[in-house]
Amino acid sequence: AAGAEFYSRNGAFNVSKNGLVENPAGLLLQGDQATQAGVLTGQVGNISLSQTTFPPFPSNQVTMVANLDSREPVLAAFDVNAPSATSNFSTSITVYDSLGTGHLISLYFRKDTTASTGNTWQYFGVVGAADAVPVFPATTGVDTVMASGLLTFGPDGTLQNESAITYPLGGFDFSGGATQDQAIAFQFGTNVLNEGGTGLDGVTQFGAVSATLTQRQNGFGSGSLSSVAIDKDGFVTGLFTNGENRTLAQVQLARFNNNQGLVKVGDNLFTISSESGQPIMGVPNAAGTGRILSNSLELSNVDLAQQFIKMIEFQRGFQANSRVITTTDDLLQELVNLRR
Fold first, then answer.
1. CB contact set of 138 (below 8 Å; sequence gap of 6+)
2. What is the three-state SS of the chain?
3. Candidate from 112-121, 158-167, 291-300 with smallest mean pLDDT
4. d(C-alpha 209, C-alpha 61), whole Å
5. pLDDT per residue as tens digits for the range 260-283
6. End-to-end Cα spacing for the chain
7. Other C-beta atoms within 10 Å of 167: how many?
8. 65-81: pLDDT as tens digits
9. Region 219-227: what's the mean pLDDT?
10. Could you give phi then psi for residue 176, rounded to 5 degrees?
């Protein structure tokens, strides 16, 4: 009946054309619902995998681990139109705007001063002409410095201090209609003076070739659902094409004070009765509800009575076919005898 609830140990489920998780009989699996942000709501309902998109997240932080060569000379003032000639080292990274579109930021480092107490370097975050918003009355973008700052190193090469980031345009202005003045912070490590760090976990300045070791940013573009996994705690997690994952739901389990009091209705389904008591709902691995083994089935999940009936039907069918063959053989034998 519509709206009826059944309970089962049969873990064979598929996804329907509507994105709902169902068993072979079309009965829907229920669990704790989750929001678009992957937060469980505490409301139990049908588990749906129709949330096939993952919205983009604009980058707001870039983290970098690198070394700047202390042997580099001090160069002339940085010129965005001649960056290679006015910088000592450069690297680049792709970040994402509010629409999930990727844009390339080039980071240029220029040695600014040299002293026995330490050296200072300038850095410039440059967006290329193709990714920069045109400034009226121009109709095309140009290479633009959208962030800059100063790094101070000690005589031992450790990062001593970082200046506040300067945004000449108020933030990053990317083309394509995304939100303007996007603030992206650059993390070069934990400096010694203001953050109490070692100055060795980010950008350093040693007498070695300048090189980027690692760099990452926290934004991503939009994605679509590519696969689903269920762990032992019942969390249904979706993996999306943008590399992100999100909780879609959590399977609910039921236990009864008297399991033997449940009423069998066939196909490994049970309903409650006055002897079983009301179901005690809970999450897996809590309060005696047991755990979930993904991609696993019990040794047998079949209805024995139904399978015996099918076996008898197949056996009778085989016997009937055997009789047909025997009768045909007898007729042929009689035909041969008539010729004699």
1. none
2. CCCCCCEECCCCCEECCCCEEECCCCCECEEEEECCCCCEEEEEEECECCCCEECCECCCEEEEEEECCCCCCCCCCCCCCCCCCCCCEEEEEEEECCCCCEEEEEEEEEEEECCCCCEEEEEEEEECCCCECCCCCCCCCCCEEEEEEEEEECCCCCEEEECCCECCCCCECECCCCCCCECCEEECCCCHHHHCCCCCCCEECCCCCCEEEEEEECCECCEEEEEEEECCCCEEEEEECCCCEEEEEEECEEECCCHHHCEEEECCEEECCCCCCCCEEECCCCCCCCCCCCCCCCCCCCCHHHHHHHHHHHHHHHHHHHHHHHHHHHHHHHHHHHHC
3. 291-300
4. 26
5. 899 988 878 889 998 888 988 888
6. 69
7. 19
8. 999 999 999 999 999 99
9. 92
10. 105, 5
Q: What are the pLDDT digits (tens) for 162-174?
A: 999 999 999 999 9
Give residue 302's pLDDT.
65
Residue with tokens 């079949």, as numbered in its chain: 302
Burial class (CB in 10 A: 0-12, 13-18, 19+), 314: exposed
